[in-house]
């Protein structure tokens, strides 16, 4: 995006400076472990309190300006903070609207680090040459793949939950959360908190120390089952599959066993139901639906791309939910899985013929009569059509016996990896003498 190509935009040095400052300061408010702090720790410790990392960034910007006497006008300061928030309503209405598409783009999710050289401003928004539509689509698809394969890896999520548990246990003693409202204290919040907990000797941090030690020893919370949930059913699973229901089912099954062994010492807090939403940037919508394009033949006019203007190899929906069940006590692996699957087996809904693209048109007679099941309303956006019964299958790839238990990981230095000498060696082949 070259300013000299569009002098009619009247972009000033002041505009450039403010956008650069906003870009540099946008992530100042991230606490330790980034979004884990924002979305998992703070809401648990400070329920109802208004805080997220953009507010922290604005707080730190105000603090820097005051602390170091940075010469900036009040109007420019408000503008920079509005750019950080991606909210034009927080500043003067005469600011250029397209500048808000750069740092925190709420229009279509394509921030400055995604912008390609063909970007132009048309109709007060950043648009792109239609030839780059496939590149923009790949950016969005790559976002999804990174979340799916890396950011939400099962071990990474387990460690995140363990960090949160360690912080929650330490909070009454360390008073960590309240520091987000004090810039002088906030700047010293980093992941050294775990080192502080680990090196402590006070009894108040014993529970936290034990959790941190488990992380170090790779004795992680165990994922006992998972299922990819289609977008229209996300609320159904959020309501029906809970830690409490799973634990209650585990105990019900144990109490009804004719030859019960030890009754499971399992509490609601020992089971985690992780519902992770992953999408291309705009939830279930195709993000390119919110992007406008131009052509070199008509660079001053823009419109949305239509089907056939770029690749048609696209998913039916652009979002899904990954449901994973974790246990903090691996000795109850099989029982927790069995409890979850009993709940899963009890879920049935009336779904419509528009939920799945492979369902025959309404004009074709159904192969079997629809079953009579209790009604459940799907999430918004699902059309009404011919109703049929739907149940949800278990994951055959994760199935274990209800009595399966996982021994604890070996202690530090216990030889998780085999030495080179202990590995099996393939027989050597004798070389023929010539």
From TrEMBL:
Domain HD-associated: 111-275
GO MF entries: dGTPase activity
GO biological process: dGTP catabolic process
Positions of the UniProt region annotated as Disordered: 354-434
Polar residues composition bias: residue spans: 383-408
Entry's Gene Ontology cellular component terms: nucleus
Protein name: HD-associated domain-containing protein
